[in-house]
Specification:
By secondary structure, this protein is of the alpha/beta class. The chain folds into two domains: 11-241, 3-Layer(aba) Sandwich (Aminopeptidase), CATH 3.40.630; 263-297 and 340-625, no CATH class. Helices cover 47% and strands 11% of the residues. The chain is built from 23 helices and 13 strands. It has helices spanning 11-22, 58-64, 80-98, 134-144, 174-179, 203-228, 246-259, 264-268, 273-282, 300-309, 318-339, 346-354, 359-371, 386-403, 437-459, 465-468, 473-487, 493-510, 515-525, 530-541, 551-564, 582-590, 609-617; strands spanning 27-31, 35-39, 45-49, 69-72, 101-108, 121-126, 154-159, 182-189, 383-385, 411-414, 420-423, 426-430, 434-436. The strands form three sheets. The chain has an eight-stranded mixed beta sheet with strand order 1-2-4-3-5-8-6-7, with helices on both faces. Strands 10-12-11 form a three-stranded mixed beta sheet, covered by helices on one side.
């Protein structure tokens, strides 16, 4: 910050704050002792918490510190009149700017004994003549929609009641409020996040209530701005915070550094897959292959310590805190998986990370393998080698470099891998691979047009986690990548059949099958060739039971459902995310925390792309995505 934190409360401090607000500058200052004011930018509202006694209630503080404009008053009797002058001065500046202003003051209700299933309770206090306003209606309706532990809340609206917490004068006198075209809402909140008898805190309840009230508060402020000021925000989420505290950057750096320090796929993928297959062939497919792995280059325990040292509880933004906590848990599971490679505990951790393979998905996969004949598995026609494929991929990379010079990814042919793999924005190509000519373009769009593009778009954002991936991003990433194959006319029956086979194989692993049992199921019961059955079996049995391969088909279904529900495909290219993060990404874009992605997959600009997407939106079946 360009200013120093104040050491005492003065009228000059009030004027300094008012001057910064008038100039459109951010205000974030400590108000000693223990107070704080944060005003992100010029906005027509202010959330206020004033301690009634000498102790600040951190639970109530947490309910407003996620907002873009709030004041936590110092907990001192002699500071009260100063606080009121500060509120009046802030109101004076912003009411003149917007033609109206809203003060929402929050305080805690008297605490009662905790219930086994707490029920949220809100008492809303407003002036009688304003009780029927659209703003109050929006607030009460939004509060009524909150559910905590499966229970709806108690919501009451009190007209003409005392417009301040018990024991405190009104923060802005009614005559002055009328002069400044200012409205006031008081909200008394039951502190269900704490046991009244013991003082025990319930952090999960607190976090849940903060997230829900954050949404309520923005909708209320949006309705007030729309109906009673000259401000015209485009969306209620646009009223959220645009700046974030230092803890966000620190947590992002800590978690992304850990995420970038290891490559789970490289760690659990055999380095002798080709050699093992040849030995398997020589045994006439009777002796299960023996796989060898790279040495593990990390200590999972040390990295776990680093991810939980990230102080996500200090983030002050419920949306970002939720995303970061998710990532902590996912990294924990991935690190556990690396430590348990080739152990019996590997499979349960894999299931916890990627989700179980449910029977509905298995039944769909079985129907797909039956629908598409075994003849569709073969790849007839000419083939290209790894070098030729890499050259074509490099030309695609060059297109992206011309759009965004910050994109420095490379295409690398390597001897130690047997497939295609994207790592840290580079495309790795196994040197022994060959590709059917008709599969070259779909594969390039799968890898470069999706995995590479989302990596580098994520790198352009203020959060590095969007490059390494938000929690559970694999499912949507792979589904989106397969969807790219459809958009370029390259999702063949053989390809869809292979993805279905992966689901069936993953389910056998969950059910305790051996490598040989999975292989024989695919070859003998579902008609896959020996080589394809081997490759699928190797993928799902690697490490001790790696069921990630079920996410390809499941992710494709998620993309289809997303589009049918009216989702914007462009949102999914901001970075690596799960389907559940799409609304969060749109919120952060509206709040101008994230920027529009600089790279756009080339396949989105092909002549048939819009037509193909519209067919899906209108209800195209999964089976009809293939290009026969």
């Amino acid at each position: 910050m360009a200013f120093t934190e104040p050491t005492r409360l003065t009228d000059q401090l009030i004027e300094d704050i008012a001057d910064r607000i008038a100039k459109g500058k951010q205000v974030r200052r400590t108000l000693p002792p223990g107070g704080r004011i944060h005003i992100d930018r010029q906005l027509p509202f202010l959330f206020v918490y004033r301690p009634a006694g000498k102790v600040v209630d951190p639970g109530i503080v947490g309910l407003i510190t996620s907002e873009a404009s709030y004041l936590v008053a110092p907990a001192q009797v002699r500071a009260r009149s100063w606080t009121n002058r500060l509120v009046e001065r802030v109101t004076d500046v912003l009411a003149a700017t917007f033609g109206g202003f809203l003060i929402i003051e929050i305080w805690g209700a008297q605490e009662t004994a905790a219930e086994p299933r707490p029920q949220a309770s809100f008492r809303v206090v407003v002036d009688r003549e304003w009780a029927d306003s659209s703003t109050v209606e929006q607030l009460s309706a939004s509060l009524a929609g909150i559910r905590v532990m499966g229970r709806g809340p108690k919501v009451s609206v009190e007209q003409g009641g005392r417009l301040s917490p018990p024991g405190l004068p009104v923060v802005l006198a009614r005559p002055r409020a009328r002069e400044l075209s200012t409205r006031y809402i008081g909200i008394e909140v039951a502190p269900i996040y704490r046991d009244a008898a013991t003082g025990e805190e319930f952090p999960f309840l607190q976090s849940s209530l903060v997230r829900k009230l954050d949404n309520v508060f923005r909708r209320t402020a949006f309705e007030f701005a729309r109906s009673e000021t000259v401000h015209r925000p485009l969306h209620y989420q646009a009223l959220g915070r645009r700046t974030f505290v230092r803890a966000v950057k620190e947590a992002d750096r800590a978690l992304s550094t850990v995420a970038e320090s290891f490559d789970l796929l490289m760690t659990v993928t055999p380095i002798n897959a080709g050699e093992a297959f040849r030995a398997f062939q020589r045994s006439r497919y009777t002796k299960p292959p023996r796989f060898q792995y790279r040495p593990r280059s990390i200590d999972p325990t040390l990295l776990k310590r680093a991810i939980y040292n990230a102080k996500v509880e200090k983030i002050e933004d419920p949306t970002l805190e939720y995303v970061f906590r998710q990532k902590q848990r996912e990294l924990d599971l991935k690190l556990t998986l690396i430590g348990e490679r080739e152990r019996p505990t590997f499979l349960p951790t894999s299931i916890a990370l990627y989700g179980n393979v449910d029977m509905q998905l298995v039944e769909l996969a079985a129907s797909l393998t039956a629908l598409f004949s075994t003849r569709s598995e073969g790849n007839r026609g000419s083939k290209v080698d790894a070098t030729t494929f890499a050259a074509r991929a490099e030309s695609e990379f060059e297109r992206y470099r011309m759009v965004d010079p910050a994109m420095t990814g490379r295409v690398i042919v390597r001897d130690d891998i047997v497939s295609l793999m994207v790592s840290a924005g580079d495309l790795l190509v196994g040197s022994g691979m060959s590709f059917p000519s008709q599969r070259v373009e779909p594969l390039i769009q799968h890898e470069a047009g999706t995995h590479v593009v989302t990596y580098w778009n994520g790198r352009s954002q203020p959060f590095r986690l969007l490059a390494s991936g938000l929690a559970n991003h694999d499912e949507l990433q792979e589904g989106l990548a397969v969807f790219a194959e459809y958009l370029v006319g390259g999702l063949t029956p053989a390809r869809l059949r292979t993805l279905a086979g992966r689901v069936l194989a993953a389910r056998t692993v969950v059910d305790g099958a051996t490598f040989m049992e999975t292989f024989e199921l695919l070859r003998d019961d579902h008609g896959f060739s020996a080589r394809t059955a081997y490759l699928i079996s190797m993928r799902v049995h690697r490490g001790g039971g790696f069921i990630k391969d079920a996410v390809y088909l499941r992710g494709l279904l998620k993309v289809i459902d997303y589009l049918k529900a009216g989702g914007r495909l462009d949102t999914l290219f901001v970075g690596k995310m799960a389907a559940e993060h799409a609304p969060i990404i749109e919120e952060l874009l509206r709040r101008q925390i994230l920027i529009p992605p600089p790279l756009r997959p080339t396949y989105l600009d092909l002549p048939d792309t819009h037509y193909r997407i519209e067919r899906v939106r209108q209800g195209l079946n999964l089976q009809d995505l293939t290009d026969h």
